[in-house]
């Protein structure tokens, strides 16, 4: 993780230490910190929240350099742990001996297929009985790509090879198979053509409805895969998915390719969703469950 966040850390930490190192934190330093956070793509709303907390603390007591960084870390951790001020279960794992359905959405190119492959691998390693539904039926290449990841991770892929197949039908069949086989984790791949927003929303809403209807007492999660290198633009795209897929969390990918890792804070603040996994590389092992502690330490250590 530390390596993945290297670019962000290098641009953030030295400057932050230089600002803070000048002595007890003063108003000028706070403004410089504000600029640094905006540069790292923390976003206006999240930056405001951080700076407000810092100002409030400073009215109560002076903050010498080491305490200033420690306090900043605690603010960041708290924000990441409590989207919209509410805490959520920090351990995020599929329930054993039960069906868990994870709907995986995102714009084409965000890293959706790669993430599904990595999740399948993680599930195999943790001895979950896993299955993938290839419901991006619009692109034949997408189904093939998911199958390649299925082979790599040793997880079977359910697809429907017919032309113009309805994604909801693939999902319907896949849930049926999952139920009869005692699958514990069903990963559902979906389309991500943003060029046609209305169709995409309709399709996703339909897939989501089928899942809700057919899932019985399965535990449903809906994860948005977001490309961290897109920064605030990625966040604007996210809004399309919020409602249609009824998102419950985010997977942030490509953190290794950006100096704007601060986007994690913007995601939590602006979408009100927890980050569940982060991707920091193209390999099958390059996905980790998200931990606010690890993230903040990797960012500001
Ligand atoms: P999809 O269209 O959303 O399914 O995206 P893909 O899974 O095909 O990924 C698009 C590109 O991003 C591929 O070249 C992946 O190797 C790359 N990619 C995905 N996740 C990561 C990541 O965490 N880090 C890096 N550096 N590249 C990634």
TrEMBL record:
Where is coiled-coil annotated? none
Per the record, the domain of life is Bacteria
Q: Provide the alphabetized UniProt keywords.
A: Cell membrane, Cytoplasm, GTP-binding, Hydrolase, Membrane, Nucleotide-binding, Receptor
Per UniProt, GTP binds at 106-113, 189-193, 253-256
User: What membrane topology does the UniProt entry give?
Assistant: Peripheral membrane protein
**EC number in record:** 3.6.5.4
| Top-rank EC class of the record's enzyme | hydrolase
The UniProt entry lists the main location of this chain as: membrane
As its record notes, the protein acts as a catalyst of: GTP + H2O = GDP + phosphate + H(+)
On whether S-adenosyl-L-methionine is a keyword of this UniProt record, the answer is: no
Q: Where in the cell is it found?
A: Cell membrane; Cytoplasm
Q: Which family does it belong to?
A: Belongs to the GTP-binding SRP family. FtsY subfamily.
Q: How does it assemble?
A: Part of the signal recognition particle protein translocation system, which is composed of SRP and FtsY.
What the protein does comes down to: Involved in targeting and insertion of nascent membrane proteins into the cytoplasmic membrane. Acts as a receptor for the complex formed by the signal recognition particle (SRP) and the ribosome-nascent chain (RNC).
> What name has this protein been given in UniProt?
Signal recognition particle receptor FtsY
Q: Which gene encodes it?
A: ftsY
């Amino acid at each position: 993780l530390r390596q993945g966040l290297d670019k962000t850390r290098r641009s953030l930490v030295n400057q932050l230490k230089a600002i803070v190192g000048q002595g007890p934190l003063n108003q000028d330093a706070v403004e410089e910190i504000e600029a640094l956070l905006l540069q790292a793509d923390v976003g206006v709303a999240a930056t405001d929240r951080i700076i407000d907390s810092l100002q409030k603390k400073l009215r109560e007591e002076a903050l010498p350099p080491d305490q200033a960084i420690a306090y900043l870390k605690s603010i960041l951790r708290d924000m990441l742990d409590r989207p919209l001020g509410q805490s959520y279960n920090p351990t995020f794992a599929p329930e054993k001996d039960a069906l868990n359905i994870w709907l995986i959405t995102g714009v084409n190119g965000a890293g959706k297929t790669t993430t599904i492959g990595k999740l399948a691998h993680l599930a195999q390693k943790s001895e979950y009985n896993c299955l993938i539904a290839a419901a991006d039926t619009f692109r034949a290449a997408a189904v093939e790509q998911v199958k390649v990841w299925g082979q790599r991770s040793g997880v079977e892929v359910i697809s429907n090879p017919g032309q113009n197949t309805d994604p909801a039908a693939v999902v319907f069949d896949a849930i049926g198979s999952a139920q009869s086989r005692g699958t514990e984790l069903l990963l559902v791949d979906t389309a991500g053509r943003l060029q046609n927003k209305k169709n995409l929303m309709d399709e996703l809403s339909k897939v989501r409805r089928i899942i809700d209807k057919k899932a019985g007492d399965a535990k449903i999660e809906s994860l948005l895969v977001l490309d961290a290198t897109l920064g605030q633009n990625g966040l604007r795209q996210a809004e399309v998915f919020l409602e249609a897929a009824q998102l419950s969390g985010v997977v942030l990918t490509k953190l290794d390719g950006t100096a704007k890792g601060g986007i994690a804070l913007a995601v939590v603040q602006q979408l009100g969703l927890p980050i569940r996994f982060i991707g920091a590389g193209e390999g099958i092992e390059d996905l980790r469950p998200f931990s606010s502690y690890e993230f903040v330490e990797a960012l500001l250590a």
